[in-house]
Amino acid sequence: MRLLFLGDLVGRAGRTAALEALPQLVEDNRLDFVIVNGENAARGFGITEEIVQDILDAGGDVVTTGNHVWDQREALVFIERQERLLRPLNFPAGTPGRGINLFTARNGARVLVMNVMGRIFMDSLDDPFAGVEAALAACPLGDVADAVVIDVHAEATSEKQALGHFVDGRATLVVGTHTHVPTADHQILPGGTAYLTDAGMCGDYDSVIGMDKEEPVNRFIRKIPSGRFQPAQGTPTICGVAVEVDDTSGLASAVAPLRIGGRLSPAWPSFWPAPR
Ligand SMILES: [Fe+2]
Ligand SMILES: [Fe+2]
Asked: How many angstroms separate the alpha carbon of residue 210 from the centre of ligand 1?
């Protein structure tokens, strides 16, 4: 099975680039399952029902989120009827929506997807490790699920690495999101779990984590807001991670970053056909 995960779509530029590229990526590379983090897809803050549908129509199977999930208030309502939209699983009990769901990939495999948020330099939610443990106990890899993907939405690299090791051998892919900057540590952990600390964003990298540079720089210098954060609108880089899944074990047999367009150096998985 062939998986693709795309990092946080930021604003119109990142969203448009990713959604225009996705149908061809799915077709040319025979992708069985695609997960997209959409927490910044609506003008940089949150996601609308229409955008979720656009991602699904372009070939996405699941949309994950993070701390920005409720920035568009409509998400509190439509998440209840959109089972392909996930919010972090460790929000308090009673939070709308779900953080875990089981899906069927194009090859028929059952894919368990989890979205979990870190607690270091972020809101203090329920224990992400306990939450992931409970989900894996209920739906273990190789039993109920043929693949398990965990989007760890977290600020601290240490917390993401620790979670990767915590589930090594019990998940197919652990991929970080939230920092909007791709890391170069993609690897298969000793137990067989593909791991990447951060996928990076799909957005304009001539920016401060996807936003027009001026106001973030001003706030660091003056500590007085002088405007709103607006997504940068330059040519975006699509950033993600590709995984080949061993169909017997459900663990990873290969992992590689994907970067297309914009300012970052390109990266294309060697186990995919050459790009056309
Ligand atoms: Fe984000
Ligand atoms: Fe975030």
From this structure: 9
Token code pair at residue 163: 């979670």
* Contact (Cβ atoms closer than 8 angstroms) between residue 199 and residue 175: yes
Residue 276 pLDDT greater than 90, yes or no:
no
Active site residue 178: no
What's the pLDDT tens digit per position in 40-74?
999 999 999 999 999 999 999 999 999 999 999 99
Q: Tens digit of pLDDT for each residue in 183-198?
A: 999 999 999 999 999 9
- C-alpha span between 79 and 86 (Å, rounded): 8
From ligand 1's centre to the CA of 37, what distance in Å?
A: 8
Cβ neighbors of 215 (< 8 A, separation 6 or more) are 225, 226, 227, 228, 229, 230
Residue type, 126: D
Question: Euclidean distance between the first and final Cα of the chain, in Å?
Answer: 21
Q: How far is the CA of 36 from the centre of ligand 2 (A)?
A: 13
Cα(68) to centroid of ligand 2, in Å? 6
Question: Which ligand is closest in space to the CA of residue 152?
Answer: 2
Measured distance CA(182)–CA(267) in Å, rounded: 12
Ligand nearest to the CA of 7: 1
